[in-house]
Every structure is written in structure tokens, then in C-alpha cells.
Amino acid sequence: MVYSGMGPDYRVLVRRARKLAQQYFLVYQEPIPTGQLVQRVASVMQEYTQSGGVRPFGVSLLIAGWDEDHPYLFQSDPSGAYFAWKATAMGKNYVNGKTFLEKRYNNDLELEDAIHTAIFDTEGEL
What SUPFAM superfamilies has UniProt attached to this entry (predicted)? Predict the structure, then answer.
């Protein structure tokens, strides 16, 4: 899980996500599926948009996971909406990042190339 936005808000959500994952594991004796974790964290974010006395979380999240031999990547915004992606970027320079990924990404990308692409994009060498 990575974020763009306010660090303290991110830490609150990470703690909540860890707690949700731990509760799931205690009940089912297996890791929480990525989609369920994203749905539950996004639900917490959405609740804060409608609750009195609290402000919405000021973060967007990227949550990645591996379930049933498939990788998953989700993005959640401060409203609690979430989206599945094959590749995406967020933050200050996200437009250039997405353009870079659109040029480099394809379904046949090898692991080494994917790692190089992610590092290259993360370092901002677009």
C-alpha cells in the first residue's frame, strides 16, 4: 500500500487495514483477498465523508496484492471510490507517469522489465 497526500491520514488507514487483515486471518485462517481489503478500506474512507465531527481522509491509495495466481492493483480516492488497474500512477507528476506506463506496459511484460519500468517511473525519470 502506497499513498499520495497527507502522511498522518495514511498511517491511520494503514493501521486500519492491518487490523482488518488480522481479523480476517483469525476467522478464516488465510490472508484477506486483495479486493476485500480494498473494499473495506474504501468503505472506511467513504464513512469519513459523511460523518459529523470528522474530515475526509486526505489521501489516495494504491493497494497491490497477489491472489489466486493473479496480481491485483487498486486505486482508492478520498471519497472512498476505488478502481482496478493493470498499471497506474498518482501524485504530483501522475500525467507523465501514466503516459510513460501506457507506452511501456503490455500483458506480455516480463517480471524483470516490469520491475525496471516501475523503478524508472517511481524515480521520476520520465
Answer: N-terminal nucleophile aminohydrolases (Ntn hydrolases)
